[in-house]
Inverse folding.
């Protein structure tokens, strides 16, 4: 797996903004110790196609900013009402609710400003911005969050899978799709979309398993599914069934990556192996 100093890149992406309480809150959440999975997926795809991963850095930062905004808003009292995130008090606990809402808004907007400054051909830039907005927006992650927040008790497994695809899969598929575009393999975007949805579903099932089996201290975030009476893959399939599904999905995605023409998948597959062994 490639080692990249995401902290410096993310810090720099906030530099153009004037100092304010909102900027402090944005930096507080963005620079907290997240796993940086989405930015890392993006550069792994570009490098796997033999291109310079640096061309993806602005988009990688944009993805992490959109992801962080979603975590800040998801933790708010009107949603999951959580106290702990990335091992620290949630944004609204550390600051206040109004600041946390604005910090999320600010990160979402700054993500697109950062992406628009990338030094890549204009058609690739527009494609990547389009992918990011579709995957993050109200046909993607926001749609998934809408279903999950407003309709969750009505779920069976088929319905829950659709919600997970939208809520979690879309923002994990986006870096793979954007990576293909930036590596001059736009024709493969749909293939990477499907691989991303498989990884996303596996990742969300794993998140449900960890929520049910690990402490908040170990996870560095509140494990609130039971408290919120959420229907999850564990409540529907049982722990064993959920683990079986997760393992099959990760294995399937690794197989598809290795079968992708012109792509050297060892580093990306090693990263997926590391995600599969995560404990938080
Ligand atoms: C509020 C618009 C809006 C969307 C919220 C992403 C999301 C949708 C909510 C966050 C809560 C959650 C459990 C989402 C599922 C995806 C997921 C497992 C996110 C956590 O991602 P990690 O593990 O987090 O990559 P770090 O902190 O490591 O970056």
């Amino acid at each position: 797996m490639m080692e990249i100093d995401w902290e410096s890149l993310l810090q720099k992406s906030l530099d153009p903004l004037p100092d304010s309480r909102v900027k402090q809150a944005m930096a507080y959440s963005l620079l907290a110790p997240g796993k940086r999975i989405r930015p890392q997926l993006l550069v792994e795809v570009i490098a796997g196609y033999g291109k310079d991963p640096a061309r993806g850095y602005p988009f990688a930062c944009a993805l992490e900013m959109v992801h962080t905004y979603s975590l800040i808003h998801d933790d708010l009292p009107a949603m999951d009402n959580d106290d702990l995130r990335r091992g620290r008090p949630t944004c609204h606990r550390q600051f206040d609710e109004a600041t946390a809402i604005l910090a999320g808004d600010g990160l979402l907007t700054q993500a697109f400003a950062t992406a628009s400054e990338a030094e890549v051909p204009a058609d690739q830039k527009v494609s990547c911005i389009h992918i990011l907005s579709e995957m993050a927006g109200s046909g993607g992650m926001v749609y998934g969050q809408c279903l999950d927040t407003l309709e969750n008790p009505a779920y069976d497994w088929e319905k829950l899978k659709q919600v997970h695809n939208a809520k979690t899969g879309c923002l994990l598929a986006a870096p793979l799709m954007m990576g293909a575009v930036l590596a001059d393999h736009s024709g493969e975007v749909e293939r990477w979309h499907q691989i991303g949805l498989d990884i996303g579903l596996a990742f969300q099932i794993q998140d449900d398993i960890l929520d049910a089996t690990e402490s908040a201290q170990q996870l560095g975030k509140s494990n609130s599914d039971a408290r919120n009476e959420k229907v999850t893959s564990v409540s529907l399939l049982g722990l064993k069934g959920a683990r079986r599904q997760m393992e099959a999905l990760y294995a399937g995605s690794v197989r598809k990556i290795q079968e992708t023409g012109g792509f050297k998948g060892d580093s990306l597959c090693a990263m997926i192996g590391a995600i599969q062994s995560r404990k938080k």
